Backbone:
């Protein structure tokens, strides 16, 4: 065994990293992989395409069996769902010591918003609009993951989502393609660094493609859209990850153009590899090959062959490749070249990660002991969580709270560790999370008395609770009656100066297989809020949710609303930092908040239609009889404890020509009493074109900090790149004419200027 590893190492110089000159590193890798593959049987090659899980993260109905034995027989290329250098070392030893060619395994996991130290859910992180912070969150996650034995993470999830019923909206960056692409880039950079240096991981962008457009927001449902919409609004974030050098891609469960993504050759080969130049490997989602039987594509042998032919390299859990590809090869249904290609890509990934050089590279017990959940990473988690929160309402400046008097802290999420981390925090330990109650006590100081009452259950519906509680008791139905709990809460409120109600969703009311048809607060919580409001005390609602919720009633009745998402390990401290003004909120929502479910999909970059609605009770316009077209809170919206005012948009040249560059400048002033940060957003409208365009599209943003009374000039550079769009021939270009340049603090409230751009 040792011998092979030594021989293998002699073919390497150092671990191939991004820093090495590409061609020489590639040539070395090539010769190593070619020589190794020369020794492999077809069965061993197929074994490399098999990704198994012995349990741990289980999101389908299957787990792998007889894993050790399969590793020995060379039937496994990678493992996911286990952590810890000791366990990973043991599994690696089986591969390296007992399989014929001693090929190391690759170890992956869902590291989505932090690994052991949990950061806010991705939708929350995106609301920070802070790219260096998001990159850093991925970097810390990579450091913890590699200290825990892992070298491959199933993130970033870059699926654009315009439907908050879809539970997985929590895992992405919201509705906008431009922001989503910036975040995709930042995450890949954060995870992978400049080289696979032992502390960085290989990222896996997912779910390619269009998974976020599931019909009716129901998970795993059909998607169907025009190519123009695909290219304009859904594909660019995956492409951004690829341009940033992402090492792997995960196929999605849904179909694209009536062919499941996992068997879609156009998607996996023509677009991904030929057009975009992707060089890494593609893994399926969990049993996505097998699921094509239910999609109606054929039996296991057929769907496995279709997946390989489409360009899939690795089969997650389903073992369709393992069990059918040899036979398909014999029958001429697939070719040895196709198997070779896939095997080569998997081996290349292992090579790049340095696993041939040292299969135990990520099994360092010392790092495991010292680099996980450190003070520094917890500090970062606290800061990132505060920076992700969005202040939705703040009447009469009820916030920030004063550090004196009595606060009634009410709600089933107020003294609750279980739900702080949010969905997809598979390696997070909720027992290490800070509750709201604890955080408020930590931050408020001795002059604040805190009176706590649970007030209600997250939901009183035991059937619903059972479904949500699939991974543990997140919805814990109290023995007391709902009225007893409300009475206790009212008594607490009556003794207090202000009520802080921590309400919203349990962690797994969003995430995979957690779609909801009603995205308002549960009836138990609505009743509680009405009772609290009736006490006449000011009520601050801290909303924990993994999606935009429909909260018209709460917006009407609450004095303040802070969207805290699922803040992660440092939840309570971060929320308290914001409530008491240690941090002035600066987040802006990245998915519109609908007024009701009937409005969905509601998003800022909609099309005008031939009968746009301009207000008033007119008939025959594109509107509803019973609700306005506007969301409750528009994309990009979020308040601060201070206020900002925007000057007019000044354009450097009103009649640019050809490839000239413009600048659009605004003065932004802090007109309030607190220092604060503002996300200054640039939108562009193209009112006349050969295809219909959205009413506006985000094309830039800058997050700035201003002291009270301070004014800053914010300048955006605009080139013809920002004017380009896909036309009917899918040509990406711009057309001459007028453009409206808009700058503002959200997608609705902007100042604008017109330019005429000629060719
Ligand atoms: C999810 C993926 C995830 C995979 C592995 C699937 O069910 O859709 O996002 O990476 O499981 O856990």
Residues:
């Amino acid at each position: 065994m040792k011998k092979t590893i030594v021989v293998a190492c002699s073919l390497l110089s150092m671990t191939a990293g991004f820093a090495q000159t590409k061609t020489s590193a590639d040539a070395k890798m090539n010769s190593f992989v070619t020589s190794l593959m020369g020794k492999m049987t077809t069965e061993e090659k197929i074994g490399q395409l098999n990704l198994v899980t012995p349990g741990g993260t289980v999101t389908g109905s299957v787990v792998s069996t007889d894993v050790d034995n399969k590793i020995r027989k060379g039937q496994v290329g990678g493992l996911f769902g286990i952590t810890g250098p000791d366990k990973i070392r043991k599994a690696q030893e089986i591969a390296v010591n007992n399989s014929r060619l001693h090929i190391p395994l690759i170890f992956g996991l869902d590291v989505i918003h932090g690994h052991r130290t949990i950061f806010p859910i991705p939708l929350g992180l995106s609301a920070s609009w802070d790219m260096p912070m998001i990159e850093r969150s991925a970097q810390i996650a990579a450091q913890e993951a590699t200290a825990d034995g892992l070298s491959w993470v199933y993130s970033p999830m870059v699926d654009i989502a315009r439907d908050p019923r879809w539970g997985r909206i929590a895992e992405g960056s919201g509705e906008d393609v431009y922001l989503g692409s910036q975040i995709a880039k930042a995450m890949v950079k954060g995870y992978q660094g400049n080289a696979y240096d032992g502390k960085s991981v290989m990222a896996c962008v997912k779910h390619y493609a269009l998974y976020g457009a599931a019909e009716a927001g129901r998970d795993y449902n059909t998607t169907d859209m025009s190519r123009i919409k695909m290219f304009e609004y859904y594909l660019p974030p995956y492409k951004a990850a690829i341009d940033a050098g992402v090492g792997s891609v995960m196929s999605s469960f849904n179909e694209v153009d009536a062919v499941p993504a996992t068997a879609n050759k156009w998607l996996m080969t023509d677009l991904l590899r030929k057009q975009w130049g992707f060089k890494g490997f593609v893994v399926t989602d969990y049993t996505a090959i097998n699921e094509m039987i239910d999609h109606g594509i054929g039996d296991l042998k057929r769907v496995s062959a279709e997946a390989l032919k489409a360009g899939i390299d690795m089969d997650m859990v389903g073992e369709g490749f393992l069990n059918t590809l040899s036979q398909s090869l014999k029958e001429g249904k697939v070719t040895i070249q196709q198997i070779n290609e896939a095997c080569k890509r998997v081996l290349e990934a292992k090579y790049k990660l340095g696993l041939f050089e040292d299969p135990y590279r990520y099994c360092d017990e010392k790092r495991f002991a010292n680099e996980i959940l450190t003070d520094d990473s917890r500090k970062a988690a606290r800061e990132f969580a505060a920076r992700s929160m969005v202040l939705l309402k703040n009447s009469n400046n009820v916030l920030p709270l004063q550090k004196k008097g009595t606060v009634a802290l009410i709600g089933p999420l107020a003294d609750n560790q279980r739900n702080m981390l949010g969905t997809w925090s598979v390696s997070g330990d909720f027992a290490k999370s800070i509750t709201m109650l604890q955080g408020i006590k930590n931050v408020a100081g001795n002059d604040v008395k805190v009176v706590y009452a649970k007030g209600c259950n997250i939901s009183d519906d035991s059937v619903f609770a059972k479904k949500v509680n699939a991974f543990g008791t997140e919805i814990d139905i109290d023995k007391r009656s709902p009225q007893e709990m409300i009475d206790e809460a009212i008594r607490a409120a009556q003794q207090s100066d202000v009520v802080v109600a921590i309400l919203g969703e349990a962690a797994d009311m969003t995430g995979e297989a957690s779609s909801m048809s009603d995205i308002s607060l549960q009836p138990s919580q609505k009743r509680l809020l009405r009772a609290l409001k009736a006490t006449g005390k000011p009520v601050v609602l801290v909303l924990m949710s993994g999606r935009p919720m429909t909260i018209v009633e709460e917006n009407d009745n609450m004095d303040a609303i802070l969207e805290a998402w699922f803040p992660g390990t440092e939840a309570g401290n971060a929320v308290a930092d914001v409530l008491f003004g240690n941090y002035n909120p600066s987040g802006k929502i990245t998915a519109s908040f609908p007024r009701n479910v009937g409005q969905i999909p509601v998003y800022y970059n909609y099309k005008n239609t031939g009968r746009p609605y301009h207000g008033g009770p007119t008939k025959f316009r594109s509107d509803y009889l019973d609700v306005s077209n506007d969301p409750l809170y528009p994309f990009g919206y979020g308040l601060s404890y201070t206020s900002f005012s925007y000057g007019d948009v000044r354009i450097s040249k009103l009649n640019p020509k050809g490839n000239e560059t413009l600048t659009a400048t605004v003065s932004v002033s802090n007109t309030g009493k607190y220092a604060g940060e503002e996300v200054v957003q640039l939108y562009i409208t193209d009112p006349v074109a050969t295809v219909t365009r959205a009413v506006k599209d985000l094309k830039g943003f800058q997050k700035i900090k201003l002291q009270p009374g301070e004014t800053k000039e914010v300048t955006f550079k605009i080139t013809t790149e920002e004017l380009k769009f896909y036309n009917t021939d899918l040509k990406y270009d711009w057309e001459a004419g007028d453009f409206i340049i808009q700058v503002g603090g959200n997608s609705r409230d902007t100042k604008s200027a017109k330019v005429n751009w000629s060719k």
Q: What stands out?
A: The mean pLDDT is 96. Residues 57, 59, 110, 154, 206, 285-286, 512 surround beta-D-glucopyranose (CB under 6 Å). The chain has three domains: 40-369, 392-586, 644-757.
